[in-house]
Design goal:
alpha+beta, Arc Repressor Mutant, subunit A, Dna Ligase, domain 1, 155 residues, binds zinc ion, 43% helix
């Protein structure tokens, strides 16, 4: 679990200033569950009499993302979500049929990281990934066979 103190320390180590909107968004990220949207953070703050424009919340989230503190992930139906990068990172399998979200261990991505480093001299930052597909329940339910799955529109 990453605490507010951890985040503030990381921000200060990067020589960045902590303004009131920045502090408010950091506090909200720590208080709320993972996978928040800019809108849900804005609403949480509004409930605490802290009125920030959604665009301000969005800008702070982008700033935290640039600092590597927050990961931004498209979780499909849930929209673009944000969460504090944890150690070790975690990832998700998102079912395109039922919308179920399943966690994936970070070790699954280690071979991909090695491959990108070795063959592309590229240091990937894979903090929080979502893979879209068909979950095992939907596959075995037979509601979607292979061809249907492949003809789903790209997101
Ligand atoms: Zn997540
Ligand atoms: Zn499913």
């Amino acid at each position: 679990m990453v605490t507010k103190a951890d985040i503030l320390e990381r921000v200060k180590r990067r020589g960045e200033r902590v303004t009131l909107p920045r502090l408010a968004v950091i506090e909200a990220l720590c208080a709320l569950n993972s996978h928040q949207t800019a809108q849900s953070i804005q609403q949480h703050l509004a409930g605490q009499q802290i009125d920030l424009e959604e665009s301000t919340v969005y800008r702070v989230l982008q700033w935290l993302k640039d600092l590597g503190i927050v990961a931004q992930t498209d979780l499909g139906q849930s929209g673009i979500t944000y969460e504090v990068v944890s150690t070790p990172p975690h990832h998700h399998l998102v079912c395109l049929v039922c919308g179920q979200i399943q966690d994936v261990d970070d070790s699954v991505l280690e071979p991909l990281r090695r491959h990108l480093r070795a063959d592309y001299a590229f240091e990937p930052r894979i903090d929080h990934m979502a893979f879209f597909g068909i979950c095992c329940r939907c596959r075995s339910a037979g509601s979607v066979d292979r061809e249907d799955a492949e003809s789903l529109p790209p997101r």
